[in-house]
Write the structure tokens for this entry.
Amino acid sequence: MKKGLLVVVSGPAGSGKGTVNGMLLESEDYVYSVSATTRAPRPGEVDGVNYHFISKEEFLRRIDAGEMLEYTQYCGNYYGTPLKEALEVLESGRNLLLEIEVEGALNVKKLYPEAVLIMLLPPSFAIQEERLRGRATETEEKILERLERTKEELLTLPSYDYVVYNHDGAADRCADQIRAIVLAEKSAVSRHPAAAVQYFEN
């Protein structure tokens, strides 16, 4: 299979998405999707590296023109994945890694059914709460808000293709499991519809 896979990793707060995805990106086989946004750059952020910073008018134009793979609105700003860049990565044979919320993930699946959706979870809801409290970086209100949000996110789990549990101190095993999922998906018969014909032609 010459074409790369579009791999979407979602997960509630405390699931360790950043750590696991960082391990995947150590390989040249995986490319991180740089999102576009209408919010202003923060100190230290670089256009084209952290985000593609564009105007609201330009973002809306891209939506109307079908140039966004997925998008969402958060706190008055738009965030989304540029379609052209995503397709260029996939055509190069590399796997495009998207770390997005469940809403965006489901939108990607509608527009690009070949995408592989992976839900990364802590071992349990109780452990997730322990992790969030252990950070000691958020207010009680914010922690409870994130936990409630998790209940909503888990309702979408049946729409995902895989679930991977991130146990404490085992992020490397999670990354290995995702690599194995990608390898298996690339060997799926559904992704090689002409395999029998090609076998006799070569």
